[in-house]
């Protein structure tokens, strides 16, 4: 038996409308075309699906069994078609974000929260576990956006600028470096450097500051949470380098002092890497707009 979705839809329409004429109108068919369709289906199944001498037209026992199948299958098909239409129109999709910066949670979570309210049909996730292999995961289609400060030349991947930030060193308020007013690489040679648990090459303090100068800190200490790192700094247990947007909320803490890296300061840029083919997605454009504005709001000290 060759059963098609149109057969199930026709059977359901006739049952709901109580006759061929009204069902044909609902299905945008002629009554003759609908009658031939049902006749062909009965010939395939070898059973009578309707009790034709009843008014309104009623399903036979075999027809009722087929109707139950239609009532199970058609809602699933209708839902799938609605999802496909939503994807085609740009209302639905997937936005899985991976980060190459531990501290990006501070602004990315508010961005994702705002995004979900505007695009409820888009599946969201933050894949921090992929932080060390985020760009290969993007190419393989495992994630859809990578937040990174290290753009690379990659085929079919576009790096879009989000915002600039200043890596800033935070030291105890009574630290000798405070009188100098800024930090040079050699100043960290005798320090315990507190960092996030990330690959060394992904930390600005190494890639942009210490490694080019050939300087190693006396000790390294990895800490997961920003609040814990700042508590250790305030206790005189070390110094830390973080983006200015992370430290802005702690600038008034009398136990801490924020200083630029080098006399002139250092500026870095954050990017969103996406597959080039996804740039036209409406929800992707919306996410990028949020990702450009939320960090600026934090830098300005907005609540």
TrEMBL record:
Residues 3-60 form the HTH lysR-type domain. GO terms for biological process: methionine biosynthetic process. One of its GO terms (molecular function) is DNA-binding transcription factor activity. GO terms for cellular component: cytosol. Keywords: Amino-acid biosynthesis, Cytoplasm, DNA-binding, Methionine biosynthesis, Transcription, Transcription regulation. It is found in: Cytoplasm. Pfam families: HTH_1, LysR_substrate. Its main location: cytoplasm. Signal peptide: none annotated. It comes from the Bacteria. The keyword Amino-acid biosynthesis applies. Belongs to the LysR transcriptional regulatory family. PANTHER family: HTH-TYPE TRANSCRIPTIONAL REGULATOR YBHD (PTHR30419). This is HTH-type transcriptional regulator MetR. It comes from Paracoccus sulfuroxidans. The lineage of its organism: Bacteria, Pseudomonadati, Pseudomonadota, Alphaproteobacteria, Rhodobacterales.
